[in-house]
Design a protein that fits this description.
Blueprint lengths: L6 H9 L15 H11 L4 H7 L6 E2 L3 E2 L10 E3 L5 E7 L4 E8 L8 H7 L8 E2 L3 H6 L6 E6 L1 H9 L1 H10 L1 H26 L5 E4 L13 H21 L3 E5 L8 H7 L3 E3 L10 H8 L4 E6 L4 H4 L2 H15 L6 E5 L9 H14 L4
Parallel strand pairs: 1-7, 7-8, 8-9, 9-10, 10-11, 11-12
Antiparallel strand pairs: 2-6, 3-4, 4-5
Helix pairs in contact: 6-7, 6-8, 7-8, 8-9, 13-14
């Protein structure tokens, strides 16, 4: 096997459970911590950050939004779904995040009310013509393009309380809203993948079904409301030979067999410190079917642990999730935050680089 695999070759090989020259790594981080990390390392461009830390980095690209003007006054912004977000600062103003403060379908209780008062987004609101050009900018990196998250988006446009109540007591309304969300996603992604001309490697069919302790909905609810849409999306991805990446925070072990059966190929973020998410069990039950992505704890170890804690975390994940020498992409469990010390982030990648060639 060549010692000169490109980052793209390494990522794709890991997903396909083929031999790799070293276990690939990825980077997820907020803009604030990325800028802070680059400044600390004396780096001007993000691509040089990946090279400096020897990160394989899955590149995310998007089409250009050309739809109706979206409100943004610097403190409040509205997205294409009509969800309003306000900017909240934290960590003495070093970091910020967008907090949802208005759910556009929250006030309505019938399909007729929604039809009369809400404008659903359209794939016509996007210019897909730049997708191929963007892909060509990164010939040596794996390209991710596409994001469908039916349950997550349902929660966001309806409000968490209302969406969960719909699933329990208003099945017709739930099916209607989820169906409209998924119809948009399907049209959008059909055009997106066609525009990609075979250069898109990975897309997300993803969600947030997990809490810190268990699933947010029952498996029966997943089967009734979401499984048919997952089947439709995954079939679309595979018709374009695009890898299926599934992000699902939390304690989701009971759902994983269904996800594997549906055809996901990458599972993120692997919050293995949560109940039921044992690394050895995950690898033994699913390691020959899916590639794991993430694993490095971003709730406690990276922000609050010592450098030795970070090194131990990396070693454990490599030992267990890459026990067969492939099928794992090492990364933080979610976006690195401004509260994570620079030395811990650097230690994560340096330790990975020291150990991953031995797997």
């Amino acid at each position: 096997m060549s010692d000169q695999m490109t980052s793209r070759e390494r990522i794709i090989a890991a997903i396909d459970h083929k031999p790799v020259d070293k276990i690939p790594t990825d980077y997820w981080g907020t803009p604030e911590i990325t800028s802070k990390l680059m400044k600390a390392l004396g780096i001007k461009q993000e691509i040089d950050l990946w090279k400096r830390l020897d990160i394989d980095k899955i590149i995310t690209i998007k089409p250009t939004y050309i739809g109706p003007k979206l409100e943004d006054d610097g403190t409040m912004k509205t997205d294409l779904w009509g969800i309003k977000h306000r900017t909240i600062s934290y960590c003495n103003g070093e970091g910020e995040y967008e907090e949802m403060c208005h759910h556009p379908l929250g006030p309505y209780s019938t399909i007729d009310e929604i039809e009369a008062n809400y404008t659903w987004p359209s794939a016509d609101w996007f210019d897909f013509s730049s997708v191929t050009r963007q892909c060509r900018l990164y010939p040596d990196y794996a390209i991710e393009c596409g994001y469908a998250a039916p349950f997550y988006m349902y929660n966001n446009i309806r409000g968490l309380q209302e969406s969960m109540m719909d699933l329990a007591i208003d099945e017709n309304l739930a099916h209607y809203i989820i169906g409209r969300i998924c119809d948009f996603y399907y049209d959008y992604h059909s055009r997106l993948f066609s525009a990609g001309e075979g250069k898109i490697d990975i897309a997300q069919v993803t969600d947030d079904f997990g809490s810190q302790n268990s699933l947010l909905i029952s498996l029966d609810m997943f089967d009734r409301f979401f499984k048919p849409h997952y089947e439709r999306f995954i079939k679309l991805l595979k018709s374009y030979d695009i890898k299926v990446f599934h992000h699902d925070d939390g304690s989701i072990m009971p759902l994983i067999p269904r996800l594997v059966e549906l055809g996901i190929e990458v599972l993120n973020p692997i919050q293995w410190h949560l109940p039921g998410m044992d690394l050895t069990e995950l690898k033994s039950r699913f390691g020959d079917k899916i590639c794991f992505h993430g694993g490095i704890d971003n709730q406690d170890v990276l922000p609050f642990g010592t450098i030795d804690d970070v090194k131990a975390e990396v070693e454990t994940c490599l030992d267990l999730l890459a026990s067969d020498g492939t099928g794992y992409i090492l990364a933080p469990c979610h976006n690195l935050q401004i509260i994570s010390p620079i030395e811990n982030i650097v230690a994560m990648y340096e330790t990975a680089n020291q150990l991953r060639v031995q797997r």
